[in-house]
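Morning F.,

Quick status update on the modeling queue. The single chain you submitted on Monday has been processed. Sequence for confirmation:
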Amino acid sequence: SPAAAITVLAIIVLLVVSAYFSAAETALGAASRRRIQRLARDGNARAQCVERLQKNTERLAGAILLGDTLVIIMATALATGLFASFWGPYALLIAAPLVAVLVILLAEVAPKTLVVRRADRAALALAPSMEMLVRLLSPVTVFCQKLMRGMLRLFGLRMEASQPVLSVHDVVRGAIDQQDRKGMVKTHRDL
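Structure tokens below.
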């Protein structure tokens, strides 16, 4: 039916958007800071954009987490609605694992594997659109960060205002180290 085709198309678009977030996260975290700084000093506007994003990793991480989480939830909801007509009450039991596998393979592993080998080039390409999204999502991410700091205080953890709640660099560094241990990364980049 046309409605089912539109739903499938929407799920595909949402998976592409999720892949964009994963690629941007990896590229901006793994890009060579020295090379980006050199390009920025030479007047490269995209490199200057990458530098701005790399300097504000907490807002970047917040925007990526917020955007990616919303996209994955929407894809799962659409898949559940689509499958409800076929499998009724069991739709969620089928849709959630199916979307999870698609997200892991197509929106996480594939884009990160593609950009980690060309992190500088990918960061330069993705930075302008990511900076726009960070600005757009900034009010929500700031609210979430403040909420998170408050929740951490409830558990006795006090964080300085300058201490990041989220760090893209730590996440990406951990992913690269894990791939390196598996022999999938030939050389280390200056992170």
